[in-house]
């Protein structure tokens, strides 16, 4: 049909749906990548009915990739959170779930040569500078499938190594130089571990704020007083980590608040994570990296509560167990998280005749 | 990649997103079409995260088409509402919005030869037996675009003629033989027009139930007492039309309740439609056909309130004006509704190795 076509692959990565594009596919004359993405996704529109976006934050995501020219990196990968009701694309962070699809995509595009039985794909996330090494099963035995919390169907497992995750936001694993800090808030003082790895986090013991730690997210979300108290601690932590000048000036997305408590049977530590003013239904990938590094750092609140089995850490979340591994890649410390992924569709997206915002006549002379 | 591939076209039809399949694409050995659709869409799962469904009723729809062998019909079209949280496919009704994409698809597949300046595509909806004639602009001038309520981007207009829509459910335009009936409900009696065209409907005057008729859907939806009273009238209408033995036995989806009131400036009649216990954000396509036939039938409540201009009827809905035309096709009465549509993506969907429910070994011997 008429209209321009753009090649894209739709993939489920972890608990997200991600639209994957070769970088050059989004480079249209006269339009910015933001404009092209917004139009393809059907934004702004709460339903994204005239585009490929799914009308929720976990289904309005783009993965933009190209082969890397850098030694030690196979693929450059940029993540874009495409606005839904607002015509805005956010380039400020990575998505751990979408990261899991990049290796498979690179193999399919021939950017990486498979080895047996596994293939490592070195991916650099350009939003954060984070090197992520993806380990894929390329044994040819495609009956090996795994499950993860939040996805009711099994998929191919991908192990993602976050290499040297410490200090990417603040420059230090422990931005205050201490494993524990006393934070002052309008409701009194609170003891916290302030740590930056994967994402900057403020870790507190559930019992220190009158919680048990096994609260259901919906119940906590319906308790504005507790949420306010927890957010005050988070904001005080932001100031102590040098991320904000005042509590009111702290961002909503970071640092994240991680509430830890003794593990139930079959796990090593229990967590509830607060992000954007709400309790996360499971645990962000970046949050699981931070928790792992906190457990590995003697003297932190997480380390004193956790009972890990060797290098494996089984984190109990509201959605189930998230397992991480503490190890190394090429001699550098690294944390691994396993996600499942699958290709949903190989597509050519259509930008119709009225697809892009109108330009002044001189800009679209054709 | 490994896994079976199924060709599909993703199209926006009116206010719905529809996955369009050649009938034979869904015919997989050892599996029913229901099983294949549910797996492709990622059901059951409230988020449909591992499939192409969008997690809402308007984005979990399939259009299954094939060239027709019948004289007078170009395309046989079956609509499927794919369950989201339940592993159930509903084949019981048509979707007016998705109907609008079938003509375009048939042209692209070469099943119909285009004419200038417009092309008519005769589509038989197999769920209902309804013949729908789609009029497409094939003048080659693809700058002619239209807008409809509920879609923030313009698209190609398609005029859909519903040919002889009367009596498809009950056998008669006026199932009781009268233009007005007195219905008895637990809250007293109510005057209604009971009519079957496009869909069976119970039409009442807003003022007869203490409403003004310009109520905002969200406000009515938050008023359980009024909703209950309206549903009692709807259920009493179902019994009077012979669609249920008792009010409690009436289906939730049909008949629909249509609340009419005098038109605001720039329209001919105002409506609020109740479906599935909620106020429709606009007006179902089938509901607009019913309202048009009601206005065209002297003595009905809608006819006495409406002030149509010739054959055109401008219906004021919460989302804006829906315009219909009363006319004929090949000498038979027909009602036209205009929708816009566009192709979103040309795709090959992947059913991975674990994509379909497991079969006993003897059934999948390979």
UniProtKB/TrEMBL annotation, chains A, B:
<dbReference type="InterPro" id="IPR007400">
    <property type="entry name" value="PrpF-like"/>
</dbReference>
<comment type="similarity">
    <text>Belongs to the PrpF family.</text>
</comment>
<dbReference type="GO" id="GO:0016853">
    <property type="term" value="F:isomerase activity"/>
</dbReference>
<protein>
    <submittedName>
        <fullName>Methylitaconate delta2-delta3-isomerase</fullName>
    </submittedName>
</protein>
<keyword id="KW-0413">Isomerase</keyword>
<dbReference type="Pfam" id="PF04303">
    <property type="entry name" value="PrpF"/>
</dbReference>
């Amino acid at each position: 049909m008429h209209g321009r076509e753009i090649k894209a692959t739709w993939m489920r990565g972890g608990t997200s749906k991600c639209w994957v594009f070769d970088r050059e596919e989004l480079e249209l004359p006269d339009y910015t990548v933001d404009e092209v993405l917004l139009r393809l996704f059907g934004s702004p529109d709460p339903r994204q009915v005239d585009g490929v976006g799914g009308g929720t934050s976990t289904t309005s995501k783009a993965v933009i990739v190209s082969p890397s020219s850098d030694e030690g990196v196979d693929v450059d990968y940029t993540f874009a959170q495409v606005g839904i009701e607002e015509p805005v694309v956010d380039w400020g962070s990575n998505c751990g779930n979408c990261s899991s699809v990049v290796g498979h995509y690179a193999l399919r595009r021939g950017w990486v040569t498979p080895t047996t039985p596994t293939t490592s794909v070195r991916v650099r996330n350009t939003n954060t500078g984070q090197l992520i090494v993806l380990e894929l099963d390329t044994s040819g035995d495609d009956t090996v499938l795994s499950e993860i919390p939040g996805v009711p169907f099994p998929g191919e497992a991908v192990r993602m190594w976050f290499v040297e995750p410490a200090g990417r936001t603040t420059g230090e694993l422990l931005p205050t130089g201490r494993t524990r800090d006393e934070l002052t808030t309008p409701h009194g003082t609170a003891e916290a571990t302030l740590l930056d790895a994967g994402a900057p986090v403020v870790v507190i013991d559930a019992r220190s704020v009158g919680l048990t730690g096994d609260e259901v997210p919906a119940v906590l979300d319906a308790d504005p007083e507790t949420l306010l108290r927890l957010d005050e601690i988070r904001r005080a932590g932001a100031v102590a980590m040098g991320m904000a000048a005042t509590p009111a000036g702290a961002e909503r997305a970071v640092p994240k608040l991680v509430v830890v408590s003794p593990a139930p049977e079959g796990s090593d530590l229990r967590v509830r994570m607060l992000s954007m003013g709400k309790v996360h239904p499971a645990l962000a990938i970046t949050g699981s990296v931070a928790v792992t590094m906190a457990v590995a750092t003697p003297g932190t609140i997480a380390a004193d509560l956790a009972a890990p089995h060797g290098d494996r850490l089984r984190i109990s979340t509201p959605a189930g167990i998230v397992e991480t591994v503490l190890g190394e890649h090429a001699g550098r410390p690294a944390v691994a998280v396993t996600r499942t992924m699958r290709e949903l569709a190989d597509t050519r997206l259509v930008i119709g005749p009225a697809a892009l915002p109108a330009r002044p006549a001189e800009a679209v002379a054709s």
